[in-house]
Amino acid sequence: MKIMTLLMVSFIFAILGFAYAFEPTTSPATGDDPWAALSNPAYLGKPHQGDLLYFSSLDNGSYNNEWGILGTFSGLGGGYYRVQSTDNWYVGLGAGFARRFYLGSNYLWQENEDGLRSEGWSFGVLAQPIKQVSFGWKYQATDWLKSNHFGLGLRPLGWRATFFWEGVLPENADFKDISNYFGAELHLINGFRIYGKMDEDKNFWAGLRFDLQNIGIGGVVAGNENEVIRETYYGHISTEYFKTVIPDRRKLLTLNLSGQLKERSSAFSIFQMNDGLNLVDLVNYLEQARENKYVEGLVLRIDNFSANIAMAEELRNALLAFKESGKSIDVYVDSPGNLQYYLASVGDRIVLPEAGSVNLTGLMAEMTFYKGTFEKIGLDADFERAGKYKSAVEPFTLDSMSAENREEMEKLLDDIYDDFVDKIAAGRNWSAEATREIIDNGPYTPSEAVEKGLVDSLMYWDDFRKSATEDKTAMSWSEYTGRNPREYNWGPIPKVAIVYAQGNITRGSSRSPLLGGLTLGSDTFRKAIEAAKNDWDVKAILVRVDSPGGSAQASDEMWHAIRQAAEKKPVIISMGSSAASGGYYIAAAGDYIFADNNTITGSIGVISGKISLGGLYDKVGINKQYLRRGQNSGIWTSSKEFSELERERIQTSIMSFYDLFKNRVLTTRELTMDSLEAVAQGRVWTGTAAKKIGLVDSLGGIHEAIQYTKLKGGLKIDSEFHLKMLPSWLNMFPFMGALVNKLRISYPFKDELDKLPVFPYEDNEALYLWPYKLYLY
Prior knowledge:
Layout: H1 2-15, H2 36-39, E1 50-59, E2 62-73, E3 76-83, E4 86-97, E5 101-111, E6 117-130, E7 133-142, E8 146-154, E9 161-170, E10 179-189, E11 192-199, E12 204-212, E13 215-223, E14 228-238, E15 240-241, E16 251-260, H3 279-291, E17 295-306, H4 309-324, E18 328-333, H5 338-344, E19 349-352, H6 371-377, E20 380-386, H7 394-397, H8 403-428, H9 432-440, H10 446-451, E21 457-458, H11 461-469, E22 473-476, H12 477-481, E23 484-485, E24 495-502, E25 504-506, E26 519-521, H13 522-534, E27 538-547, E28 549-551, H14 552-566, E29 571-580, H15 582-587, E30 592-595, E31 600-602, E32 606-612, H16 614-620, H17 644-668, H18 673-679, E33 684-686, H19 687-692, E34 698-699, H20 702-712, E35 722-726, H21 735-746, H22 749-755, E36 767-769
Parallel strand pairs: 15-23, 16-17, 16-22, 17-18, 18-19, 19-21, 24-27, 24-35, 25-26, 27-29, 29-30, 29-31, 30-34
Antiparallel strand pairs: 1-2, 1-14, 2-3, 3-4, 4-5, 5-6, 6-7, 7-8, 8-9, 9-10, 10-11, 11-12, 12-13, 13-14, 20-32, 28-36, 31-33
């Protein structure tokens, strides 16, 4: 009864304002603040960012000059505290492994009032294999104490209730002499917890704590069954956000879309040119904001923003979902083109600067043919293909579109334009016919844009922002996304791996050359898939494909890697702007395929050949002579076209690859050979059309694919999980993207080079390739 009374008194003390503490009511197996690093230095290996704790104490109600400050930061720890007229210092280092096992060590020293110095060290181990159990051990070897400390923590009901035992055994003592402590910590509601522990002699430590976002304040009392001896109080500041019962203020988010939207983030966003904006983060944070009851709207500025068609579609869908949840979107656009207006049309209000314009003019597909140039300089493109729609070589072999190429390009443009018109019409509450008429008469001056209803008003940015946020709390996008929540759970968190397959497919390692597109190396991709497959915490794999194809052999190696992974874990495919030819080859290895409406996919076909330089050699006076053994030994020489026998062997080879391509597709697609042949032949399709003919399973972007992948991995939609981005090498060189962006300014031809068909020849092998890149300006 006396103990219960003392516990109640301690809680009342803390409520009255006692706010700093020294005695940690924890064990080597538990704890969630810088004190835990003293109980067990292995705590330093936990994945927290930065924490600072200050404490002060009273003895029997009188200040005793005992105080201290302790800190931790990403594996490092240290601090100073004064106890019983002795100054104490420590520094520590810790590391974690797979969120299951942690190691750490502290170097400690102290000095008393007489100047006598003592020192030593401690070593700790922490194991948290599952969410319910934690094991800890610390060995301390200092001049004033040599002992083992054991800890066991249990959470049978989750993180809100922690029960623990601590055992302290002096070095060389018999185990029966161990001192036992028992305690608990209860999170009664978010932001309010009570805790305490007691030893075998009925000495106790008890207290409570309040959390307010980044700040925690609390109090601890220590005593025995007869009296409270010490009152200690603390304040804890963290870079992470604690759970709190205090309601957040309702706010408007402000987001500036500028620069090139990337598929994935970089580890060092300081080097990026667009403030680190990437599709996955944008879509995920918009989804979080949609579900956050304290976010009431979005103020969006679109300025010199670019993205491929599929990424723009996914971003617009995320904005639309945000709006349909009942939240406002105010949009400010600086002279929007087609892409920018396509995104802006989702807003409740669109505002244009008084000197701006609306360049909504419709879509155009532009194809460049080089045959005439080749003839002038003596080059001859000598290619064979499997599939009458396989148009990758036509820019070099023809001077205009073939009938088949025109047919598929007209269909692609129709599908994309229809979707473009329908979404703008829905956003502005127009009919499709009226929208087409407005597009046909663009571009528009500011006054015309207001008159036609393209924008709602004209305003300078500062006036617009003031009007949009008047009497409301505004929060920047970086501030909102930088609110890192405190991790309370023990043990590993399940993961979904996203393996990126971007760029022209080649054998070997992936590369990012300065003047050319990103290449997708089969070795790099295979290692990334194997890393995801072998990671115990990865429950399912999502392959994000954005590739026009390339090397046939590399594509098959990547297909094989995906199929091997699929034998162990679900593998889902999410298509970006293109997953055509070799891009579709690897996508077909997945268990389930998502595509955007405007994804370019298909192109099931093969090409192979060479560019003969014989005519050029003649023009510049070069004479080549060859000595050969073997009838076809000169098949890949650059000085002549294929002979009839060589051409027959090339045709046999590509038909073999074509049959292999189709059989790979039939491994996972519920199609017959006849039905596949009808939609193959090198023809490309939009995602909408591909779903109708069975080449993809569902329409949706990266967000929908992630949610489906979670379910296939056995996770609930609302369950906690982490995304593991692979391959990790892309995070190692973030400056490459910034450097390329700078080169765009210095060399205008960089954009034109990006549009050229790319043939990543390796030993003159067959290619799965779709040659065009579609831009929405």
